[in-house]
Amino acid sequence: MKLRTWTAVLLMSGLLAAGGANAQQSTTPAGPNPLDVVPEKMPFATPYGTPIPLEKAQAAVQAAIAEANKRGWPLDVAVVDSGGNLVAFARMDGAQIGSIAVSEHKARAAAKFRRPTKAFEDAMQQGRNYLTTIDDIVASRGGIPLIENDKIIGAIGCSGATGSQDEVVCMAGAATIK
User: Fold this and answer.
1) Which residues pair with 152 in a beta bridge?
2) What b-and-e string marks burial along 119-143, b requiring 16 or more CB atoms within 10 Å of the CB?
3) Tell me, what's the pLDDT at 117?
4) I want to staple 124 with a disulfide (CB 3.0 to 4.6 A). Which of 85, 113, 132, 139 is the partner?
5) pTM for this one?
6) Is 8 helix (H, G, I), strand (E, B) or coil?
7) Within 10 A of 159 (CB to CB), how many other CB atoms are there?
8) Contact indicator for 60, 85 with CB cutoff of 8 Å
């Protein structure tokens, strides 16, 4: 009886020690946690500039619509200023109603977080599910910051098709900003 008790105690001690050692390491099933890497420079640090004027916002929307029309993709297109406020919007004939809010959300996320929304989509596909805890994230491509003179003046968001189609149309709109 004593032998069984001591064997159980030793086995449990070994398991507890091994568990404690594993708990101190920050790992994922694939290895070390990539979020523990401390970059030298701040990522996505493009500064904000003067908010996009209406004329430029409308030109970006029109370029996006022209691209969508060329491809036969009815979309919703939104442009926000550097603070994430709606400046221009268009809903193409036949575009789905649910995509109105999504196009605005993509534009706001791209402006607020100073990066294309594809960055969030990529991170989610890599298993970085912590993004679901951050307000205003949209993990679907089709939101692109609008950069003029190395400063973010706004962002464009497109929705109504696949993410890759939305992104192509947004890039056509973003290309109007020099």
Assistant:
1) 48, 147
2) bbbebbeeeeeeeeeeeebbbbbbb
3) 97
4) 139
5) 0.79
6) helix
7) 29
8) no
- Cite the beta strand spans of the chain per DSSP E: 27-28, 31-32, 76-81, 86-91, 143-148, 151-159
Alpha carbon distance 110, 102 (integer Å): 12
CA-CA-CA-CA dihedral for 67, 94, 106, 169, to nearest 10: -10
Question: Distances from the Cα of 30 to the Cαs of 33, 122, 126, in angstroms?
Answer: 8, 17, 11
- pLDDT of residue 72 exceeding 70, the answer is yes
pLDDT in tens, 1-53: 454 444 444 444 444 444 444 444 445 566 777 778 888 888 788 999 999 99
Alpha carbon distance 75, 101 (integer Å):
12
Closest to 71 (Cα-Cα) out of 134, 175, 160: 160
Strands 76-81 and 86-91: antiparallel
